[in-house]
Amino acid sequence: MAHRFTKISELKKYLREMMFGTGRAGDSYPRILHAPAVSPELVGTIGINLIIYADDDSIEIGTRTNGAGVVHEVNQLWFTVQARPWAIVYSATNGRIELRSRNKQGPAMHALDKTSTPAQVAAVFAAL
Predict the structure, then answer these.
(1) Domain ranges of the chain
(2) Per-residue pLDDT at 27 exceeds 80
(3) Would the pTM count as exceeding 0.90?
(4) Which of 24, 30, 109, 121 lies most in the core, judged by the most C-beta atoms within 10 Å?
C-alpha cells in the first residue's frame, strides 16, 4: 500500500515527522537516528531534488498495516521521472540511501550517504 503526495506540504510534513521529529508512532527518537550514515542535510537535499525532478503527482510513500490495524509509513518512496519509475530505499544492510530502478527490489543505481555532497545528489537526480 502507498500514500501519494499531491502537495508539497504533505511531503514537508512527512520529512519533518519521520526524519526530524519524533518519528512514527511508537518511535522514541527521530527516524534519522536509525541511520547513522545518513544526515538530515542529505535527506533535505534529496527532498529538494525530488520536488524538482519527480513528475507531478508521482511521489508515493510506502505504508504498512501492523497487527493492530494501524497504518504507518515505511522508509521507501516511489516516484517517476519522465514516466520512468524509481524507488528511494534506505538499505539497512548497506547503511545508505539507494535509488533503485523500477521498485524497491530493483537494482541499486545510485547510493547516497552523509559523505554525498549537495552537488553529487543534484547530479544523480539530473541524470535520472
Answers:
(1) 2-126
(2) no
(3) no
(4) 121
